[in-house]
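Table 4 source record.
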Amino acid sequence: MSAHEWGPATASPPVGENDIRRWAIAVYWPERPPARYTEPGGPVAPPDFNPFAWPLDPLPQIPGAAREDFPEHARVMNGGQKDRYGVPIRPGDVITTTSRIAAIESRATRLGDTRFVSTEQLWRNQRGEFVRSRTSTLIRY
């Protein structure tokens, strides 16, 4: 099956220095985070920083094929994810995210009829620079 269209874009609030600092402290606790994540006047965010961790509005759902033809009681298993990183997130950045279904594959496995659904999420900053992408796979059976 071919890749699907990108869904609607959602923008984060502007990233604050304290957002980055608190994330870094939480990630590295009880150790002290590296200075590049906490220095006043221009820290960069750790690669796993998520400006959508506490959204004011729910993020848009990827419509369609992930659930088609599978009963509501179907089981879902995490099939893994792969992240790629671009420019770091800095204070003041507004990150835009959009997602799509990248691939769908159905096949018979020892679990029965099984569907492998890969979704792709893309982040860019307000300058249009690539920040991060994540490809995730859900296994429905």
